[in-house]
Specification:
318 residues, alpha/beta, Rossmann fold, 7-stranded parallel β-sheet, two-stranded parallel ribbon, binds NADP nicotinamide-adenine-dinucleotide phosphate
């Protein structure tokens, strides 16, 4: 059993969260998963003897629930994030106020470690509300908990991801895929297991206190190359149609009215900046943790194959 004490994870029921909870449990940690809907996190329970996982109910905008969730925790990890506003959830409430509230509560409860999940491109001055809110959230986290570790990944891939699955689904359904802005935006897709292992290592390494990590995969791919990879893996041949940012933004103005929009105007603004590791002085990376990142080509075929046309589930012999 790990001697790091209780680790409270907010957002542990999400795509990344499930992997983080598993990586922490493997170290023998006692993990308290704080979620809005406890039922969504019961699948994370491990067999006895492999860590200990407790599920508690907490919305990160509920001060009392957050305080209860961090009580007695030595480490607090905040993975809560949204891709677009919906219902009562918006970027200011979740990425800014929620992040600040969790960091303050962790400090007041006496936690010694705080890890905050931000994103590459986080910048209070960004034109994108998503990226600006991630930047504002980082500022509040640092104010409340100066030794916090901030983690900024590029787009994360793995079974159940939002990005690769979404475009694979579109490639399977539509004869056209839009190359927003011509498809030149650069990404550095990073494997969810590498990100989860990085967080588990950071949680066990006091030397990382106060650091900011940028997490990217082994290769830089532009948006067109990402879509080409998805099409290759799924045996789909849609027309990759270049769509200028202005046109994409106009279309997104209508699409974003849907309950689960495939594109919002804010995402079009986000796509106007590359999403890759900057390597700026003072920032840390997966290499600093001794993690060799996994390539998308190795993992993506293992979970995108169900999007292939019926009868094309195996590779033909060369
Ligand atoms: N996936 C990526 O490519 C990527 C890239 C860069 C950065 N990130 C960041 O990494 C983090 C995790 O991303 P993800 O892909 O795992 O997202 P996700 O699957 O959507 O998970 C988000 C988590 O936040 C929880 N949550 C949402 N609103 C909440 C609230 N008001 N109170 C408490 N919990 C709330 C969700 O739980 P319920 O909704 O079930 O309550 C869920 O557990 C986010 O901060 C995201 O911005 C992700």
């Amino acid at each position: 059993m790990s001697n790091v004490g209780i680790i409270t994870v907010f957002g542990g029921s999400g795509f990344l969260g499930a992997h983080v909870v598993r990586a922490l449990a493997k170290t023998g940690a006692r993990v308290r998963v704080a979620v809005r809907h406890p039922g969504s996190a019961y699948r994370l329970q491990t067999a006895s003897g492999v860590g200990q996982i407790q599920v508690v109910k907490a919305d990160i905008s509920d001060e009392a629930a957050v305080a209860a969730a961090v009580r007695g925790a030595a480490t607090v990890i905040n993975l809560v994030g949204i891709l677009h506003p919906s219902g009562g959830q918006n970027f200011q409430r979740i990425h800014v106020e929620g992040a600040g509230l969790v960091a303050r509560a962790a400090k007041e409860a006496g936690a010694s470690r705080f890890i905050h999940m931000s994103a590459l491109g986080a910048d209070a001055e960004s034109q994108s509300t998503y990226a600006a809110s991630k930047g504002d959230g980082e500022v509040l986290v640092r104010e409340a908990f100066p030794e916090a570790v901030i983690v900024r990944p590029s787009v994360i891939f793995g079974p159940g991801d939002g990005f690769f699955n979404r475009f694979a689904q579109m490639a399977a359904l539509s004869p056209i895929l839009p190359l927003v802005g011509g498809g030149h935006t650069k990404f550095q897709p990073v494997y969810v297991v590498d990100v989860a292992n990085a967080l588990a290592q950071i949680s066990q390494s006091p030397a990382t206190a106060g650091a900011t990590f940028e997490l990217g995969g082994p290769e830089v791919l532009d948006f067109k190359q990402v879509l080409e990879l998805i099409c290759k893996v799924t045996h789909r041949r849609p027309w990759l149609m270049p769509l200028p940012f202005a046109v994409a933004s106009f279309q997104a103005a209508f699409l974003q009215m849907l309950p689960n929009p495939i594109l919002t105007m804010d995402q079009v603004r986000l796509l106007q900046a590359d999403n890759i590791v900057t390597g700026k002085a003072g920032l840390k990376s997966l290499a600093d943790l001794g993690i060799a990142p996994t390539a998308a080509e190795v993992i993506v075929p293992t979970y995108l194959w169900p999007y292939r046309p019926r009868g094309q589930f195996s590779e033909s012999a060369a």
